[in-house]
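Retro notes (design track)

What went well: tokenization of the new backbones is finally stable.
What didn't: we kept losing track of which sequence belonged to which structure.
Fix going forward: every design gets posted as structure first, then sequence, in one message. First example under the new rule, 235 residues:
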């Protein structure tokens, strides 16, 4: 699959303080909003009742983030029916909701080779969709953030081409012993990655590709544990 990941270099990206590099004052980024009704604390993060956060004892903790078990169903009902071919793909983690939809295929032209035509026309059509739907996507992202306490990122696919719009890059702090550091350094020295952090991301992606079935079963089991915990008495 030909995939593009615009990441932090996206033209819509705005930095803290409201001034992107080399730009004047710009408006807010898609899916990124400041404090809104139902949000407390800084930066619009959802804050629930004190001491009633959601987390896993002894494991990761993400206090005050509401559950998003019904996010996929919510987006099915909220997204315009003429945007995508079929239902959008919705992925959720503790910080972000990513919505990726498939666009209708582009009609072929005879002026260029088939390979070049397919690549360029698909990227161009995705770019047009992005601009045409920007205002509505920002509105939907605001509603979803108020409901789920997470940022919303968008993407689109046509055939083998996928473009992911501006999305979050969350730093992860960890401690690695020498054998583990040597694995990352080998990836860097061989040119697979440019840094240890990029090598770590590469390794996580590789594990995810080869253990997706096991990870899916693990997530399902964790979801059942969360449901049982929620049915228990309040302490």
């Amino acid at each position: 699959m030909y995939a593009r990941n615009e990441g932090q270099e996206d033209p819509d990206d705005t930095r803290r303080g409201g001034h992107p590099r080399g730009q004047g004052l710009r408006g807010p980024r898609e899916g990124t909003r400041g404090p809104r009704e139902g949000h407390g604390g800084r930066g619009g993060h959802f804050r629930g009742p004190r001491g009633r956060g959601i987390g896993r004892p002894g494991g990761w903790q993400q206090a005050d983030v509401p559950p998003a078990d019904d996010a996929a169903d919510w987006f099915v009902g909220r997204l315009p029916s003429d945007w995508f071919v079929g239902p959008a793909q919705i992925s959720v983690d503790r910080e972000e909701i990513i919505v990726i939809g498939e666009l209708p295929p582009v009609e072929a032209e005879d002026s260029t080779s088939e390979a070049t035509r397919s690549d360029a026309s698909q990227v161009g059509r995705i770019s047009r969709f992005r601009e045409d739907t920007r205002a509505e996507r920002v509105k939907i992202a605001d509603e979803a953030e108020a409901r789920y306490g997470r940022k919303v990122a968008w993407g689109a696919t046509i055939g083998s081409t996928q473009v992911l719009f501006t999305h979050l890059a969350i730093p992860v702090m960890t401690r690695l012993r020498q054998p583990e550091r040597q694995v990352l350094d080998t990836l860097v020295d061989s040119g697979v990655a440019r840094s240890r952090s990029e090598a770590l991301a590469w390794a996580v992606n590789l594990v995810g590709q080869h253990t997706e079935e096991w990870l899916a079963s693990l997530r399902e089991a964790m979801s059942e544990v969360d449901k049982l915990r929620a049915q228990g008495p309040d302490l």
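Added context from the reviewer: The mean pLDDT is 74.
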